[in-house]
Amino acid sequence: MDSDAGPRGGWPRLYAIVLGALVVEIALLWILARVFQ
Amino acid sequence: MSVVDWIVLVATIAGIVAYGSWRSRRIQTAESFLRAGKDLRWWTIGLSVIATQASAITFLSLPGQAYEDGLGFVQFYFGLPLAMVILSAIIVPIYHRLRVYTAYEYLELRFDRKTRQFTALLFLVSRGLASGLAIYAPALVLSAVLGWPVLWTNLLLGGTTIVYTVLGGSRAVSRTQSAQMAVIFLGLVAALVTVVMSLPRQVSFGEGVALAGALGKLQAVDLSLRFDTRYTLWSGLLGGLFVQLAYFGTDQSQVQRYLSGGPLTESRLGLLMNGLVKVPMQLFILFIGVMVFVFYQLSPPPLFFNGAALERLRERQGTEVARLEQAQTAAFSEQRAAIERLLSPGASPQSVAAARDEVRGGQARIVSLRREAGALAARTLPGVDAKDSDFIFLRFVLDHFPRGLIGLLVAVILSAAMSANSAALSSLGATTVVDFYRPRRPDATDAQTLRVARIATAGWGIVAVGFAAYASLLDNLIQAVNVLGSLFYGPMLGVFLVGFFLKSVRGTAAFWATVAGEAVVLAAAAFGNLGFLWYNVIGCAVVVGAATLLQLALPRDSGKPARA
What we know:
The complex is a heterodimer. Chain A has one helix spanning about 10-35. By secondary structure, chain A is mostly helical. Chain A has one helix and no strands. In chain B, about 75% of the residues lie in helices and about 0% in strands. In chain B, helix 3 crosses helix 12 (about 265-300) and helix 9 (about 205-215) packs across helix 12 (about 265-300). Chain B is globular.
């Protein structure tokens, strides 16, 4: 089987970063549309 | 294009092709042709995955989409980070454990050969047709730039991509994609800077953004629960999750990029890199389109963005074109005056609201005149589409970009075309060989397999170029690509999900459920009125539901037991 050393801090931390970035982007876009309308 | 532009363009494209060919010069086995190589690091895999999805259509069509409808299209990509996490955590480890070349091999290990080959066939049809669109879009650019017929540029672009992919295989694809992405990122930043610098001196960047907001172009998130609206937060998150899971998890053009034969960690990290980068990148391209829109609110836009068609129309319908242009000039002057009032400092809220309504009214008049010109062009000129949104960004680049940058932007579009098409052709060739040729000829030598892989890759290239000849009949190209994908992705994803999660379901039930899912999606597309993203959800749900019910109804020993 291939090695799967994983990233520093583990996979769950990396998944949280990816999904957290999405939430922040959606929130910022929503705010942007409210500010400039 | 000027001499400087030609030098930039030819040097960039020739440099990328030479680099890729040099890095993949030792292709002597079928393994090295079909797989990208064990030494790929996560950032190369990530860039390769991004480059495969970002075709020329992305750079031509996306700014035009934003010009027409604003940032809303970005919602289509909201499901992507979720899909990357699911793939990285669950699906990629399964593929790695089974050491498969194509995603469809898994289906034979899990179900049976007919399920594997039916799903592989769905992939070949959808990807083969989509490649045609992906060749046509940049062919359109070259045709506009060089003034050559689209058919010639189709043949030139398709032919170049075929040669380079047939020679270097999957390794050449991955190696060149890193260089192509570097050119693409550079070109995108240069494009946004140029658009912003092109705004009239008295209008600041902030005022430009405010104007875009006042005209509704910054409405990126639609929270409504309407099922007939194409892009909402919910269709993006749920429908987008399904389409991206299906695309990255079951479309061999992507699976081949991350199943490079190297360590599992690198594949998983490469996909997560895509999950982080994709939404901001698409937003960036859409924002360029919004700023082009702002530019044309402050400087007179052409009556019709397909410049070559407009010139021909002027020759055939001179009086009518002059009348429309006159009306457009009048509407633009009124709108421009209203914009000055809208942006003037110290204006009262009432006068701002009145000015905003006037600007919106003027904008609606200009759009309707452009539509009238489009309809006239479509009636008068054979083969010209009434819609010109795919030409908007290109027109802006050719009319307003400085020397050298035009060449760079055309290189961006061609790089994207080459990267997406070479990945597609390579995966079509690989699927044909691994899922159809090898099972029938298990005794074929490595040299024979390599030869068939090269012939299959070239054959699919010819099919794609053939389909590209018909692409001019389609509406907005990027939507056409996504609609086409959505006709097949739901059932494809469904059968994989059944394989991964419903351990009791066996081959016969899985096969007929996939056939049923595909039939339902095609029927929904032909007779229904749903946003196309929902096809993915429906197709997937029908396969999962039908497979479960069929397995309950069928005798327990129908289909072989699972090995994966």
